[in-house]
């Protein structure tokens, strides 16, 4: 109705001067009609059942599919939780030989990538959609031509350790006169492999057994967060530091590093060591160990010129004391440094115990040297066809590998990336959740990946693609089964029938086969001389330059996850910054360069050529003064898709400038000519640009500390993290805990009896801060992504955050991580202030948040001492609607104006109760596993009924280590923390300092 | 328009309002769909199947025992019987008599409603697949809870709560109708009067925690 129409209706009532009475008439009529329309029925809802469904398929009933995660090369076991025909959540497979039951943030988030609508649907030819028939015809003809003419074919992939794909590759390459398979890894371990090539004569990656190590010395290896197989290493590491059972033990972990890594944060002792000092220090360590061994003295004299001489003396003593049960690891990409690290392990007799070389790891197989050769061939125009799969050389190698010089470039990228943009043909591969695959993470351990959903996008695996090009048109599953039948089935004797063998492998997700273990050759000590000599000439950065450290960040890794919004919004476990990469500088260096947090600087190669990058500065505690550390994996093409992520409102600012990228790539600074990658140690100059930005950090809000002017006498310092040493703990199991007098009497006497109080314990001695729980919670509970701007406004929505506390100065930094979530207080302050009873206590001791009652006063969030409540300022719709398929149907999607917070995964509690009732029994301990507990690689979280004396959680909550955060408030939380116990020097205890 | 006209207009509105009020038996709260009895794409009769033929509810709604949802049966479940039963018994009998009289084999009689089922499954006259893709049947949902309510069938079935308690006398319904209000108060009334354990004291009643249904 137009405006004029309205006035006509209004006018007849009272002419030109409407009276109050007639106005009320009209309002009343309006209200009445509104009420009537309110009574009318909502839109008709349809229930559309499948035409044909198998009786096993029950709508709404969860089923699990065992598979193997391919989010990185580690090969952790996953159980895909499926409902109504599609996967909705990934969980770690309990007892898996690789992961042991946890799943890292990347693995958790890979479910979102499955539903990425930007994935290619079928092949592309020159950027145009094409059909598979067309691809088969044209590419088949082109390759046939090369077979006849003897053209050069190169296959460039990441690590491929699956027997079936390796078989397909071998068959494919066989057909050409000059064909080669080149492998490199985005996150390279090439130097470590090369070093073993030199010292053992076999280019292998030893399987590291952290659980057997009593002393661990790590030179810049971030093994708890991103290095090679972090979930496996975390599980092993925490197993070696178990305070439970009859024989508690705790390994000693010393980290020498230049940047502040998560692993460094966990170390019992952390020492700042520049990247150029790593080699000399290792040579010094080898020298000291040689003296103890009374050996040849290949590193003689190195200790005298080594940095950190005193520390090295002490380390050598401790390592020697645990010979055969110690581990020296280095994250360096310098082969000489890795040779020295393996020499140290050899001197300590660790080969065969903590380093398994008989059944080595196959989790990284890349060979960086082969890249240089390929680069030469490509530059000379000698490559006729280049097939790229699993890696993104155009981004990783910053254009140093001239892939466009190949006469035919085929990319297997699943979604548009820098390489596919240059490719003649794109033959997309499927997501690992919709395809068959296999892997061999350790020699003799075979893992299977199986589809959990029919292909959502028309993709083909590399195996199927290569088989087609070799004239084999069998289905992908048949190709894989063929390899298993031919190669693996004969290696076992447990099953006589192949189908039974294969089905068992499918059911478990993996198979261990006893093959002949290959004994390593003798250690070639003569390989050490050159490596030791090389350390004499190592130099630091030139004057005025800093050494660049390009490190992988948890979740983002080498950039493969740059299109995953969950991982962009996951705060870095150390810096707590989201949605960006940044140049980390120590406070002293920043002061010297007159830079402040957020100042944009330009990083340029010192003297050489290569890419530049403009990045904001982050001042990082504990970092070496001579380095600038920047995360890899940012600045990926197409990340401007996140421009509009987050709510749209009048004051909203974009997450990314249109046409821009999230963060900036530093690959150009880390890759030199000839594709030589140097992740640590390239000289760069840092110059201010004069601009400044606000980083989206989650660190300095949700702070549990109290402003001084508000504190009661004696309560200014709120101790929330307690820490003690292993020795002190052995004398007094309650050491380190500062108990607070709790006021006597109770305002709220218990008004009902219940046999259940759900509770949780979090063991700070186990927690590494890896953030797997944060992502697990996000996937389980439909926690939305809010975008960079909203994070800046302190409105991020995660129900579970990891608080990080720094203690000490840069030279002796101690870091503590504390997962913080709703404490489900028995005397919850939030419940007392809610005017509409939207947050109330359940009989099971849960602090329930009732969305349909909440009117959004936010009183509860203000009164919560733990700052764990999150308010929906907007409807956080997902920009990519297809990703709604990953929403958990068992959890309400919250709308604007309501409060939310951790529910202890009440949907899982209800599920367990329903199942127990259906089976006519009580809920048992272990029936309920919240998402955070499930994903934890360190098994730091226990959950269950605190009133059941036999439950694990009750047992742990009764230990002297257990304490409640902010106990003095007497809110009686249901979450108990167990003190952080470390093996370092005694500290003052208490973790009030929120730090920067 | 004069003042008189305006008064007539208001009076007319009041009359219309009164008529509307009188037509609905009582004023319902927003969201209460009690009595909702929509027409379905196929005139499926619960009276015939559940009442007359006494087919167990859980034969078709088999999810009720193991899942949160009882489920609308897939068309393949219908075909378990309707592969053979293609029309009402009367029609088949009549055809048989007529065929006997005319001295020929009786032809297959397909009722118009079942034809819709076969069409959905893309089956031809002989009930053989035509090879075309089928089109799932879009039933109209009658018992519908808001998105923030999580009702779990399997617990109620395990506790031997009869289907009729919530779904009304389905055995007598030609077309499915929502009988109770399905409001929260209605749920809670029942939870308060039911013991937590079968045969236990009503004082320890079924849970009325918010998080029993809302999470």
Q: Main beta sheet of chain B: strand number and arrangement?
A: none
Mean pLDDT of chain A: 88
Helix segment tally of chain B: 10
> Which chain pair has the greatest contact?
A-B, 52 and 58 residues
- Give the number of DSSP strands of chain A: 42
CATH architecture assignment name of the largest domain in chain A: 2-Layer Sandwich
**How would you name the oligomeric state of the polypeptide chains in this document?**
heterodimer
Structural class of chain A: alpha/beta
Major sheet size, sense and barrel closure of chain A: 7 strands, mixed
Poorly predicted regions of chain B = none
**In the CATH hierarchy, what is the class of the largest domain in chain A?**
Alpha Beta
The helix content of chain A, as a percent range, equals 25-40%
Instruction: Give the fraction of residues assigned to helices of chain B.
Output: 40-55%
Strand order of the largest sheet of chain A: 6-5-17-16-15-7-8
Question: What is the string of helix and strand elements of chain B?
Answer: HHHHHHHEHHH
Q: How many discrete domains of chain B? A: 2
Radius of gyration of chain B: 24 Å
Summary, kept brief:
The complex is a heterodimer of chains A (996) and B (215). Chain A is α/β, with parallel strands linked by helices and 996 residues long.
